């Protein structure tokens, strides 16, 4: 599978994750989100950017849902729960996987959010 974005072909694996995270930019993220049926808001971008930062700057770390809840509660200044993340990212595999896919990150191989 691949995406055609701004005249450039962006390759994905069989599950729709980018083959090369260096191909990602916000336009690519928007295209993947559209395919996933997710309309991106500022909160979506907060989660996506948090996951990208953790992966890129923390040696490939892929936060799970519990870590995402803590980080977004702090960022948004209110206590959130797992349901809040599932509302934002309702796709298969859970919020951490769908947000990572939209963010151009590799597929997580861990199970569950906790």
From TrEMBL:
Subcellular compartments: Cytoplasm
Region called Disordered, residue ranges: 92-114
Keywords recorded for this protein, A-Z: Cytoplasm, Transferase
MF GO annotations: sulfur carrier activity; transferase activity
Domain of life: Bacteria
Biological processes, Gene Ontology terms: tRNA wobble position uridine thiolation
Enzyme class name: transferase
InterPro entries: DsrC-like_C, DsrC-like_dom_sf, DsrC-like_N, DsrC/TusE
EC number of the protein: 2.8.1.-
Any single Pfam family the record assigns to this protein: DsrC
Cellular component GO terms, alphabetical: cytoplasm
Protein's job: Part of a sulfur-relay system.
UniProt family annotation: Belongs to the dsrC/tusE family.
NCBIfam families hit by this protein: dsrC_tusE_dsvC (TIGR03342)
PANTHER family given in the database record: SULFURTRANSFERASE TUSE
Name used for this protein in its record: Sulfurtransferase
Species: Thiolapillus brandeum
């Amino acid at each position: 599978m691949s995406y055609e974005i701004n005249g450039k072909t962006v390759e994905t694996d069989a599950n729709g994750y980018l083959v090369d995270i260096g191909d990602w930019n916000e336009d690519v993220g928007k295209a993947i989100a559209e395919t996933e049926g997710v309309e991106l808001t500022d909160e979506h971008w907060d989660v996506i950017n948090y996951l990208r930062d953790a992966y890129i700057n923390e040696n490939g770390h892929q936060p799970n849902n519990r870590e995402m809840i803590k980080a977004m509660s702090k960022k948004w200044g209110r206590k959130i729960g797992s349901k809040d993340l599932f509302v934002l990212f309702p796709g298969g595999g859970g919020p951490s996987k769908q947000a990572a896919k939209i963010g151009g990150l590799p597929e997580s191989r861990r199970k569950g959010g906790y």
